[in-house]
Amino acid sequence: MKYSIRNILGITLMFPMFISMFTLNHFISWLIFGIYILLLGLVFLFSSFLSNFEKIENKINKVFMRTLAFIVGVGMIMFFSLVWSTSYLDISAYFSESYETVRGYPSQIGDVSSKSVFQQIEINHIKLKSVYEIHEKDFNKELEATYLPRSKYVIKLWIYK
User: Fold this and answer.
1) How far apart are CA 1 and CA 120, in angstroms?
2) What is the pLDDT of residue 100?
3) Are 128 and 150 in contact (CB under 8 A)?
4) What is the distance between the alpha carbons of residues 20 and 62, in angstroms, rounded to a whole number?
5) Following DSSP, what letter does each residue of 57-114 receive, concatenated?
6) CA separation, residue 25 to residues 30, 83, 155 (Å)
7) Strands of 119-123's sheet in order across
């Protein structure tokens, strides 16, 4: 098997993103995953303008690939800005451990679906984003959540009887 610099670089760049996908309950992994989404969006966006797509001979296919790369790039950057932008405002709060805590009975708990990695929780009129899934049997129990002030990202979640 022949290894090229391109393959090794691709594996090296994708490995931390792959690991961070499975550890999204850690804030740092969440940030790393967000950085990769932003970088991939920028790569697609710049490739739509700068790449010649030399291996594609058909002019219609070239236009299609440029348009597709542009749409994917813009989409990933928009996804980053909607999901991760507030998380980056909390970096200083995370490292200085300036968390906020709320305790009470949830007035709303959203469903976790394949479309979202978060479960929306509302406790005492504060809407939180949690990667910790609360099962239906625990919906009526008292919760305590430690979260970051701007993004409302839940760092720790306790369920009481």
Assistant:
1) 47
2) 93
3) no
4) 34
5) --HHHHHHHHHHHHHHHHHHHHHHHHHTHHHHHTHHHHHTT--EEEEE-EEEEPPP-T
6) 7, 15, 8
7) 106-109, 119-123, 126-130
Amino acid identity at 126: I
**Average pLDDT value for residue range 61-67:** 83
Residues 38, 84 contacting (CB under 8 angstroms): yes
DSSP string covering 113-143: -TT-S-EEEEETTEEEEESSPPPGGGTTS-E
Residue 110 amino acid letter? G
What 8-state DSSP symbol labels residue 4?
A: -
The angle subtended at Cα 50 by Cα 46 and Cα 51, nearest 5°, is: 105
* Residues contacting residue 148 through CB under 8 Å, at least 6 positions apart: 27, 87, 90, 93, 94, 99, 100, 155
Mean pLDDT, rounded, for 71-83: 87
Q: Name the pTM for this structure.
A: 0.64
Bridge partners of 84? none
Contact by Cβ (8 Å): 147, 99:
yes
